[in-house]
Structures are given as structure tokens and as C-alpha cells.
Write a structure and sequence with these properties.
By secondary structure, chain A is mainly α. Chain A is built from 14 helices and 2 strands; from the N terminus they run αββααααααααααααα. The longest helix of chain A is centred in the N-terminal third of the chain and has 33 residues. Helix content of chain B is about 45%, strand content about 10%. Chain B has a 5-stranded mixed sheet. The longest helix of chain B has 22 residues. Chain B starts with a helix and ends with a helix. The chains are: A mainly alpha, B alpha+beta. At the A-B interface, helix 1, strand 1, helix 2 and helix 13 of A face helix 1, helix 3, helix 4, helix 11 and helix 19 of B.
């Protein structure tokens, strides 16, 4: 029963992983033999300003963008968890953006936010100037966060499931103890959905570290001569990896980057898992 | 027993995968030894060659067919299968890695020759050319430069892209200006054509070195003799006075137009590049440095707008110069023989035939809009196209230049280009001062040298 999966795993997952690990110690180009260079790719990367900048940009998305995304998803779920007429429609409306492909949503926001676009015109109605979303690296990252926050449907759905699962009796008990709305949220809702929050944080963090498609769409706009942005200024680690691998065919260098990113991801994941007991409430204490 | 078998199979597969991985794609270098003389056509076995072309539009595929027909008629033993490929560089990289390459490729690999050489991906064709007394003088010099790297020729030219200054004659007339023939005139024209709204926002700029695509920082550097690498691609050359001059000129150009944000808002408002909203077509930028393909755009996208336009050689930093001295040949299509082609000899014959089918190439390029590299084809093309679109004359003269500027090639050319673009934009934006520019270039030089040394193993 397992063998087809096992073969698939070996061929399509294990082999590329092992290969990329080997290649990270080599200079390798498409179609040619790999040349062993030991740790040189890694040494070069540790002093690489581009990588530092890319990591800073990625960290920005993780530390600012991810909490915003989770917070908004939680808020929407809380609003939609209350029984009301037309709830299904609202839920559908919030969920639909999540099924839009990332590239399409990137192109959509590019159209909306570009200079002279609808958002810019809206600012103009109030006599204000819209930020240079794509012309200024400082604004490119908030633009990416906006796109990410727009598509919170999947997260919202998970939070919604978590919220409707909270027994009413807990809120009733809290009310008997004199808890107000904030106290109920702080001491009942948050702990009860903490496993969902943990899941969202963990998968969201991994997702952010792999961010590429929407940033790529924004940068392509720059390349096609439509604006003056600076893709390097908002370069993300995964985008840098892709550029080095496919533009210059530097497979060894890109593989070393991939492994650095993997180690960072692993370290963050380990920290999150080991600290979860302090804040994640589980009924059976420790299954996750 | 069954479980054990599965486990063993899995372990064997994993070991095989690890073994293959550690082999790292050990590719055999091309060991083809060319025959001392060509085999007479009547003695040849029939051969079917797979030909990858970057022209995928139905109209272009149909326009290309007569070139194939001619070469199949000249070589009855030969059949050429045309396969249109999008994203040729990636497709070829994947094919090379898999060891399953086509027999001939037509693509624009001009700035990527160093990478092809480093990967051993295409066949240097000098030996074939020498043996067959192939006449390189039948091509314009710039096109031969574009297929030459490290003293070897890696392809046979098909077409070249030259860059010229597109000008909106009506805008110039309105401002009482003539076509700029020096950098000073160009800067003066840019300012004279400036139209600003009462709030200071820009409505029109005469000319800008960078209309959004930051790579113009690198392209305009060529005008100052500033290149990213030495000719052989082994030395980084970004810490030079030429780059300081080029970057200072680019930055100073923007000073009359307000701060960076003001300019960025203007350019950020441009419509889609390949549409009627193109900034040259709308008149937002009446002077524009672009390649010959753009010649067809006022008609194709602008529905005849601007009505009155032309093309002139782009002026140089030292003032007026002839087209011959200032031609920039930025890129060009050529035919390449992949190193692992089944029959490199047959590939060479087919590629050299397709590159020299003058009449058919001329007919094809009339459809595409590129400038033919073959001189005979160029003469035919000139007769047809200049009568139809006079602006082509400038590009044809530029293409004929005896000593044009071509971009150089290196294994990290895109990395270097990206980083120089970022530096140029940061400088223009005012992220660092003129006094800091030499240090910024020195730092970039050091970074790129480290990366290049690693890739080259030096």
C-alpha cells in the first residue's frame, strides 16, 4: 500500500533534497558537472548584503504582516461566528479571495495600487497623495501585507471552526464570575483557540519564508517599464534564490540559500513547538 | 517478507538517488570530433533535426517556414522540425540538465554566452566554420561580436537589435528644438519639453535615462564606456571612472525635475507599455531611447500616434558623433548548436544554411521587425522596409556600424546587472551622496569579485 507513495517520496522529494544539499557545496550550472567548493557558497552568503536585506524584508513580513493577517482572520471569524441572517453569504465573501491564485491577486493589487490607479485616485479625491506603493521599497512591503491580508479566507475558516467549537458553558461560567466581554475573550476565547492560533502561526511563518509569487508580480511590473520601483529594495529571500538560480543559473549558490532558509525555518519551528506549552491550551495536554 | 521487500526496494531506490545526486549530473563534455571534410550530400543518411525557436506566434511560425523549406531543398537529406519554445533560456537549461537537447536552437543568448560556455551547453562552431571557409564577413560586425566570447564563436547570427533615439517631431517643433545631437542638447531638450502642473507634478518630460526599467542604468553606462565586466568576463569592472561619470550624469539629469518622488509619481502613472498608453505614444516622453522593434509600435499600438515621429542616432557624452561610432547593439538572435546535439555536423549545416538564406530571412524579418544580421538580407530588407517605414534607415545604418558597442557577458551578468541597477536607483533617490559613490562602487566591485571568483573557480 505504501510503496507507490514511497517511490514518489524518494524520487520527487528525498532525491531533490539530497541533491540540493550536495549542490550547496558545489558550483553547479545546468547541464554541467558540479564542482566541489566546500563551504564557499555559504561563506559568500554570510557576508552578502543582498541576503541580509532579503532576510530583513522577509522578517518584516513575518513580524508585522503575519500578526496582522492572523489578527484580521480572527476578528472576521469572531464576527461571523455569531448567528445572524446571511451569515453564509458573508462567510463566502470573506473566503472567496483565498481561492484566487496568488499571481492573479498580485496582478489585481498591482492594478489597484499603481500610480494613477483607483486607490491613487481615491486619495486624490481627498486632496491627498497615495503612497508610492511600488516606487518606494518602504511601501512595497506594506503593499504585500495588504495582498496577504485580503486573502485570509482560509485562516478565517479555521478560526471559525475553532470559535464555534468553544462550549457555551465556559462563557456562562465566566459571566457568573462577572467577566466582561474583554475578560471573556482574554480568558476563554483566546486560550480555547490557541491550538488554531498556533497552527496559523506555524504554517503562516513557513509560508512567509517562502513568499515569492506576489512580490514577483510586483517586480515584473517594474521590469516591464511601468514604474520606477526598486525590486532589490524589497527583495525577499525566496525571490533572491529564484533570481540567482534561474537568471544566472547558479544552482550551487541558490541551493546554499535554500538550505540557509531551511535551517532558519527549522529553527523557528523548533522554537515555536518547544514554547507552545506555555501558551497553547490543549485538552489532552501535549498531543500537538 | 512483503514488508521486507518494500523496505529493500525503498532503500535501494534511496541509495540510487543519493548516488545519482552525489554524481552531481556528471556530464560528459562534448567529445565530438569534426570530420576533416564535409560529407557529400548524396552520401548522407537522412537526418531529422529538432529546431527550437523562440518565435511562437502563428504569424511568425508561418513566416519562418520558407527559411526551412529553402534549407531542406538545398539539403534533401535534411528534415527540420520546428518547435516553438517560450522561455527559451529556462527550457534549454532544463533540457541540458536532462541531457535531452534539441539539435539546433534559435534564441537571444548574447549576454549569456559566458554561462553557456561555463556549462559547456553549446558547441563552439569555429572548427566547422574554418573547415568550411564560412564567411563571417557576410554578417554585420555587431552581430558577429554578439556571438563571440572568449575568442570563440558560439552561434551564427540571425538578427540584431540596435537602439536609437525616437523623437516626437511635433513636440520638438512646438518647443522650437531640433533633434539633439549631444548630451548637452539632450539635457536641454528634456528640460525645455518639461510640462508641470500648478502643483508641481509632472505632465511631460523631454527625455529620461530611465523610464522605469532600471536596467537602463546599465545600458546608458555603455555610452560612457562603462561595462560590468572585462571582454572575457573574468574581471569585474564596476569600480571605474566611467561608471562614476555615467551614474553622475544619470543622477544630474533628474535634478531639474524635482525630487525623486515627483519623478517616480510621473513614471508610476505610465500606462501599460505595450499598449496605446505607452508613454511615447501618449506624448508623455517625446524623446525615447529604444530598440528597432519599437519602430512598428506607433502604428501597431498607437493607431498612428504620434503622427510625426522619427529616429536618430543616440548622441554620445562627447557630443555629436556618427551613427557608426555610437551604435549600440544590445542583443540579437542567433542559431546555436547544443553541445549534446545528436549530430553536430548536421546541426551546423542546417544552422549555417538558415542563417544565410538571404531572401527568406529578409521576408521573415519584415514580419518580425528585427534587423537582419546577414548583409545580403539586410540590403533586401532595407529596400522594403525603408520605403514603408523611413525610420528603419537609422537602425539599418546603426546595424551596419563597423565597431558597435555590445554588452559584455559573464557567468554572473544578471546578478551584477541587478546590483548595479539597485545602486544606480539608490544613488538617484539620494540614499547616498556623490562623495560616497566611489566607496559604493568599490564595495560592489568587491562583492561581485568574490561571487565571480567562486563561479569561475579562480
Amino acid at each position: 500500500m505504501l510503496s507507490p507513495w514511497l517511490v514518489g517520496f524518494v524520487v520527487f522529494t528525498a532525491y531533490p533534497i539530497i541533491n540540493s544539499f550536495y549542490w550547496s557545496f558545489t558550483v553547479k550550472r545546468y547541464g554541467s558537472a558540479a564542482r566541489w567548493v566546500g563551504l564557499e557558497n555559504y561563506q559568500l552568503l554570510f557576508g552578502n548584503d543582498d541576503l541580509v536585506k532579503a532576510l530583513q524584508n522577509t522578517a518584516y513580513l513575518a513580524l508585522i504582516g503575519l500578526p496582522i493577517r492572523i489578527g484580521v482572520a480572527m476578528l472576521c471569524a469572531a464576527l461571523l461566528a455569531r448567528p445572524r441572517r446571511g451569515n453564509g453569504i458573508y462567510r463566502l465573501m470573506f473566503y472567496v479571495p483565498a481561492v484566487v491564485p496568488a499571481v492573479a491577486s498580485g496582478a489585481l493589487f498591482f492594478f489597484l495600487l499603481r500610480e494613477g490607479g483607483p486607490v491613487s485616485s481615491l486619495f486624490g479625491l481627498f486632496g491627498a497623495e497615495a503612497p508610492l506603493w511600488f516606487g518606494d521599497p518602504a511601501w512595497a512591503k506594506p503593499a504585500l501585507i495588504m495582498v496577504g491580508t485580503w486573502a485570509i479566507g482560509d485562516l478565517m475558516l479555521i478560526f471559525l471552526a475553532g470559535l464555534v467549537d468553544i462550549p457555551r458553558s465556559l462563557y456562562e461560567a465566566a459571566e457568573l464570575d462577572g467577566a466582561g466581554r474583554w475578560a471573556k475573550f482574554r480568558h476563554v476565547t483566546l486560550p480555547m483557540i490557541s491550538p488554531v492560533t498556533f497552527f496559523a502561526l506555524l504554517t503562516g511563518m513557513i509560508g512567509v519564508l517562502q513568499s515569492f509569487d506576489q512580490a514577483f508580480v510586483f517586480s515584473q511590473g517594474v521590469r516591464s517599464g511601468r514604474l520606477t520601483g526598486e525590486p532589490q529594495g524589497s527583495l525577499l529571500t525566496y525571490a533572491m534564490l529564484q533570481l540567482r538560480q534561474f537568471q544566472d543559473g547558479r544552482i550551487g549558490f541558490a541551493s546554499a540559500m535554500a538550505w540557509i532558509m531551511f535551517l532558519i525555518t527549522l529553527a523557528i519551528t523548533i522554537v515555536m513547538i518547544t514554547t507552545r506549552r506555555r501558551w497553547v491550551h490543549t485538552a489532552n495536554d501535549g498531543l500537538i | 517478507m512483503k514488508t521486507r521487500t518494500i523496505r529493500l526496494v525503498a532503500i535501494a531506490a534511496a541509495l540510487a538517488a543519493v548516488g545519482a545526486a552525489c554524481g552531481g549530473g556528471e556530464s560528459e563534455s562534448s567529445s565530438t570530433t569534426i570530420a576533416q571534410t564535409t560529407i557529400p550530400a548524396e552520401q548522407r543518411q537522412p537526418a531529422t533535426l529538432t529546431f527550437w525557436s523562440s518565435f511562437g506566434d502563428t504569424e511568425l511560425v508561418e513566416a519562418y517556414q520558407p527559411i526551412i523549406d529553402k534549407c531542406e531543398a538545398d539539403n534533401p537529406w535534411l528534415t527540420i522540425d520546428y518547435v516553438a519554445k517560450d522561455g527559451m533560456a529556462t527550457a534549454f537549461a532544463a533540457a541540458a540538465e536532462a541531457g535531452d537537447v534539441p539539435d539546433i536552437i534559435q534564441a537571444d543568448f548574447s549576454s549569456g554566452l559566458a554561462k553557456l560556455e561555463a556549462a559547456g551547453a553549446v558547441y563552439p562552431i569555429d572548427e566547422f566554420a574554418s573547415r568550411d571557409n564560412f564567411d563571417w564577413n557576410q554578417f554585420v560586425p555587431g552581430s558577429v561580436k554578439l556571438v563571440t566570447f572568449n575568442g570563440k564563436k558560439w552561434g551564427i547570427p540571425l538578427s540584431v537589435d540596435t537602439a536609437g533615439l525616437f523623437f516626437n517631431q511635433d513636440a520638438l517643433d512646438e518647443a522650437g528644438l531640433s533633434v539633439p545631437t549631444s548630451f548637452e542638447e539632450l539635457s536641454a531638450a528634456a528640460e525645455a519639453l518639461l510640462v508641470q502642473n500648478p502643483d508641481g507634478s509632472i505632465e511631460r518630460i523631454g527625455w529620461v535615462p530611465d523610464v522605469g526599467d532600471g536596467s537602463y542604468a546599465v545600458a546608458t553606462g555603455l555610452l560612457f564606456g562603462a561595462k560590468l565586466f572585462s571582454e572575457d568576463g573574468t574581471q569585474v569592472t564596476v569600480n571605474t571612472q566611467e561608471w562614476i561619470d555615467a551614474l553622475n550624469w544619470q543622477r544630474s539629469f533628474y535634478e531639474p525635475f524635482g525630487d525623486y518622488e515627483n519623478f517616480a509619481r510621473f513614471v508610476g502613472g505610465f500606462g501599460s507599455y505595450d499598449s496605446a498608453q505607452n508613454f511615447f505614444i501618449t506624448g508623455q516622453v517625446p524623446l525615447y531611447l529604444e530598440a528597432s522593434y519599437f519602430t512598428t509600435w506607433p502604428e501597431r499600438f498607437g493607431n498612428g500616434q504620434p503622427a510625426n515621429w522619427g529616429v536618430a542616432p543616440f548622441p554620445g557624452p562627447d557630443g555629436v558623433a556618427s551613427a557608426d561610432e555610437l551604435a549600440i547593439i544590445g542583443s540579437g538572435n542567433a542559431f546555436y548548436v547544443p553541445a549534446k546535439a545528436t549530430d553536430p555536423e548536421a546541426s551546423w549545416i542546417a544552422a549555417s544554411c538558415m542563417a544565410t538564406a538571404a531572401q527568406q530571412i529578409a521576408d521573415f524579418e519584415v514580419v518580425v521587425g528585427n534587423i537582419p544580421a546577414n548583409k545580403e538580407a539586410l540590403d533586401i530588407f532595407e529596400q522594403v522596409e525603408v520605403a514603408r517605414i523611413p525610420a528603419y534607415k537609422t537602425f539599418i545604418d546603426l546595424a551596419k556600424s563597423s565597431n558597435p558597442v555590445v554588452p559584455n557577458s559573464a557567468v554572473i551578468i544578471e546578478t551584477a546587472s541587478d546590483q548595479m541597477t539597485a545602486l544606480a536607483l539608490a544613488y538617484r533617490r539620494g540614499d547616498f551622496s556623490e562623495a560616497d559613490l566611489p566607496q559604493q562602487l568599490a564595495d560592489l566591485q568587491a562583492r561581485l569579485e568574490d561571487e565571480l571568483a567562486l563561479e569561475l573557480g579562480s
